Amino acid sequence: MPTPADPRRIEDYAIIGNCETVALVSRDGSVDWLSVPRFDSSASFAALLGTPENGRWLIAPQNHRYRVTRRYRGSTLILETVFETEAGAVCVTDFMARRNRVSDLVRLVKGVRGTVPMRTEIIVRFEYGLIVPWVSRLPDGRLQFVAGPDRLVLDTDATLRGEDRRTVGEFNVSAGEQIGFCLSWRQSFRSTPERVQFEQTLAATEAFWSQWAQAAKPFGEWSEPALRSLLTLKALTHWETGGIAAAASTSLPERLGGERNWDYRFCWLRDATFTLFALVSAGYLEEAQAWREWLIRAIGGSPDKVQTLYGVAGERRLTEYEASWLPGFHGSAPVRIGNAAAEQLQLDIYGEIVDALFVGCIAGLAPEDASWSLQYQLINHLESIWDQPDNGIWEMRGDPQHFTHSKVMAWVAFDRVVASIERLGLQGPLDRWRSIRDTIHREVCERGFDSKRNSFVQFYGSTHLDASLLRIPLVGFLPADDPRVRGTVAAIERDLMRDGLVMRYDTGSGADGLPPGEGAFLACSFWLADNYALQGRHQAARQLFEHLLSLRNDVGLLAEEYDPVGKRQLGNFPQALSHLALVNTARNLMGIGPAHLRSTRAEHQRADRPHKS
Q1: CATH homologous superfamily of 10-192
Q2: Residue 385 per-residue DSSP state
């Protein structure tokens, strides 16, 4: 069982994907995580959350003494890992492709210099490392791994053998030589997938990613990190449904050895506006349109049944359970599958939904007939619940509270429907919605602000801070130069920052119902940089942004959190929200980002007077 002394680090992983699922590949050449056929399907390789016996696919030099360098090939998701040994050097090229009802994971081993003895070890364990498959050889020589509905078919010219419920092999690769491997998933009751042509598939995959990347608008000096983040977001986007998974993994810990381990392979509504801004600003209107259509489909139905998160196709049942047979990354248990937060009341999602649909309209996305009708129903429901306590943006598992950020986002919902009537000519009860909007604004300023601390607080009656309060100027609730906003930023700088990064909140307060301790939340640190930019503190904004860029791993990826003491990434990986925040902050530093666009709505919110249209 892994222990806290386990040498693996989250940043040691890179991803490959086919816009249907993602695999995590470690620096030592091991595919330690693969869920097929979808991001949120059960894993066939789950060593990420346990040991090699829970499933992995290793290709590496037989001599364990080697030097590793890796990169993505150009603007693609094709990973190239070079192993240099005393005997020579070899490059392993990893990528994923997609065919009709088939996912292909391709690994090409090519000699660069000398002759390198290589080894491979394939341990297939379906159902998150639990099920040992039946292995057989097909008439054409390929190996087949089958258990119930799952099947993987391995095609290679390398000589392999069975050994202690593993498939292993050794082979030599000399300069210029190449040995290919392809592992294809298809349901066991369907026909056997056709063989893959390695070079043709590689060329087609490279062309797909390169052509997609060429459509990106420039980000000036930030173009390289912004484009890599956009490619990561594309990898987490399902090609057919338009849903964007919040992360590729489950249960990577927010604290090593702790229990803050959650399944993030679903689509969160609170990411909706961040996503639309990032995609639209980069010129990806097709993806933005698909995401908006996913959003409308997912939340369709009775407004009182809207959830905080959904499956990649909009599924609602995301029952949470613990995979007790997996010890967890660095012994961080429990490993959770599914997410009970889907059943929580989180008022902020109403603001995110309405704001996303409003942003889509002003961005020029094709009109959606159901959009305004849906917003109308959601706002009518929000009228009756906005004054209730909820679980908040961080999905607290303690008692519900009147979270200040939740009320701010309820204000956003009413503010945007008022703007839709005023600016877009849509029909609705303008006076009533404007009155509710202004009532919420007054209440937040009265009950959510602590004059002694000169700061907004986590929830009404609390004295604790919360980094989500950094969003107050970013959504246009108050201007960035409002004294209360400046006071809140100063308080967060003083009490929630660790080594230049922002913590979400004081986990020792007991508000979340969990044991204390986690890393700095990277998206919150990007939000602080956005605040600096809005306040005209451009040097501070730039320095913080560059510091955050330095935390990316060697191939440009970010997890959810960062441990400023242990100097390592924490939480699920790669995290869409971290990369969304990176893209949006890059635009904000250019002076043309979403923070500037949304903050103009705050100019009417000075002091406590209601908005005057």
Answers
A1: Glycoside hydrolase, family 65, N-terminal domain (2.70.98.40)
A2: H
Identify the burial level of 239 via C-beta atoms within 10 angstroms of its C-beta, where 0-12 means exposed, 13-18 middle and 19 or more buried. Answer: exposed
Cα–Cα distance for residue pair 486/473, rounded to 1 Å: 10
Helix (DSSP H) and strand (DSSP E) numbers for the chain: 15, 26
> Per residue in 525-535, pLDDT tens?
999 999 999 99
Q: Give me the CATH code for the 219-605 domain, please.
A: 1.50.10.10
Per residue in 443-455, pLDDT (tens digit) is: 999 999 999 999 9
Q: Are 80 and 54 in contact (CB under 8 A)?
A: no
CB 482 within 8 A of CB 476: no
CA 92 to the chain's CA centroid: 26
The full set of domain ranges for the chain reads 10-192, 219-605
Cross-strand pairs, 120: 59, 169
Averaged pLDDT, 388-402: 94
Structure token digits, residue 281: 């600003």
pTM exceeding 0.90: yes
Specify whether the CB–CB gap between 268 and 308 falls below 8 A.
yes
Closest by CA to 197, choosing from 121, 73, 106, is 106
172 phi and psi angles, rounded to 5 deg: -105, 145
